[in-house]
Amino acid sequence: MLEKKSIAYERAVLIGIISKEQDEAKSKEYLDELEFLTYTAGGEVVKRFTQKIDIPNPKTFIGTGKMEEVEEFVKSNDIGSVIFDDELSPSQQKNIERLLRCKIIDRTGLILDIFAQRAKTSYARTQVELAQYQYLLPRLTGLWTHLERQRGGIGMRGPGETEIETDRRIVRDKIALLRKKMETIDKQMAVQRGNRGALVRVALVGYTNVGKSTLMNVISKSDVFAENKLFATLDTTVRKVVIGNLPFLLSDTVGFIRKLPTQLVDSFKSTLDEVREADLLLHVVDISHPNFEDHIASVNQILGEINSADKPTVMVFNKIDAYTHETIDNDDLVTEKTKAHYTLEDWKKTWMGSSAEDVLFISAINKENLDDFKRKVYNVVREIHITRFPYNNFLYPDYEDLS
Ligand SMILES: Nc1nc2c(ncn2[C@@H]2O[C@H](COP(=O)(O)OP(=O)(O)OP(=O)(O)O)[C@@H](O)[C@H]2O)c(=O)[nH]1
Ligand SMILES: [Mg+2]
């Protein structure tokens, strides 16, 4: 079964490129994230290779010289898999596999593998399996090369091609079957969401590992799995939360990531409907992460892809307890102030001053500023509630007047 297949990466090598679009610093950040993904999937990164190249080699992604270097290292260091930060075309994957004779995994394959490991409910598993088969379909030729290598090429072309065709048909049938299953599930989920009645719906969204589930647990006294790995949450949890006397529904769902594989966005349609149908988004950000601004951009991009960019949103900057910044000595007149030197106060000014959006700074772990959080959410939810039910206006006093 595909869904259960968890690849034992063990010792892995990472490969990334430095180009016009991503300078050395960006490339390092991306590889840091890829290393975290590898670790989440159960692998240990032994070495990173980078190459300055603007247009990836159409055959092998990186250049021939660099590939020889990698090959040498793979052979003499017992490397089980080579992981690329970018999506490889099926033929690139095949070519590189032939050269290095070990598992070649790209970013998409790695994320799919983590999702497969993490999917607990049959609902999540169906969604992941669908995405995996869609990823597999154009790559079936690669599997065939494998056979070709074992059996030798001459005289094998005829039966070989039939074999690929059979494989393709099996995978296509499987995709069709999973689509049907998803349709049924989608309908059930839509009914379930419909049954939740007229309560205002609030969704926690954000990059993976920012603390959405931790915040959910603190606010709703629920017990959602949270840990310091990527994609701890795949299944959506919905809780009824009451602040003061105002009830609403809060949902915690799958985290986003840069370049989230399109197959996953498609097959997680039903999970993402939770976001699509929410009245209010709480966009949680890990402000202690050096790339948090990129994370915000990635999340906004995905929100755009699922037609949810224009929803009322509260920006929740979490992990203020872990925030650190560089300092400039008073007598240092050379160093220029950059964002790396920003204090929390600087960030507050930037965000609160510049955007029309609501902004909060909290620590879910230390329960810092949770009262601000509650007041803000109460006020916004009340606003939505009384717009919808004007005759309920008198029910909800100002947050300060709640006893
Ligand atoms: N220092 C600090 N760590 C936090 C805070 N909130 C959460 N964390 C930690 O961040 C890690 C990720 O937390 P989760 O709640 O699982 O994050 P998530 O956004 O639900 O992640 P996914 O489900 O993987 O998308 C855990 O190790 C938490 O303990 C915080 O306020 N401060
Ligand atoms: Mg979570």
Descriptive labels:
binds magnesium ion; 6-stranded mixed beta sheet; Rossmann fold; 4-stranded parallel beta sheet; binds guanosine-5'-triphosphate; alpha/beta; 3 domains; disordered N terminus; 13 helices; single chain
Characterise this structure.
- By secondary structure, the chain is α/β, with parallel strands linked by helices.
- It has three domains: 10-115, 3-Layer(aba) Sandwich (Rossmann fold), CATH 3.40.50; 119-147 and 160-195; 198-326 and 333-388, Rossmann fold (3-Layer(aba) Sandwich).
- Helices cover 46% and strands 16% of the residues.
- The chain is built from 13 helices and ten strands.
- The protein has helices spanning 24-41, 64-76, 90-100, 107-118, 122-136, 140-151, 157-194, 212-220, 262-267, 269-276, 292-305, 344-354, 370-388, and strands at residues 10-18, 43-52, 81-84, 103-106, 201-206, 237-243, 246-252, 280-286, 313-318, 358-361.
- The protein has a six-stranded mixed β-sheet with strand order 6-7-5-8-9-10, with helices on both faces. The chain has a four-stranded parallel β-sheet with strand order 2-1-3-4, sandwiched between helices.
- Helix 12 (344-354) links the parallel strand 9 and strand 10.
- It is flat.
- The termini are far apart.
- Mean pLDDT is 85; it is low at 1-5 and 144-160.
- The structure holds guanosine-5'-triphosphate (GTP) and magnesium ion.
- Guanosine-5'-triphosphate (GTP) binds at residues 206, 208-214, 226-228, 230-233, 255, 318-319, 321-322, 363-365.
- GTPase that associates with the 50S ribosomal subunit and may have a role during protein synthesis or ribosome biogenesis.
- Monomer. Associates with the 50S ribosomal subunit.
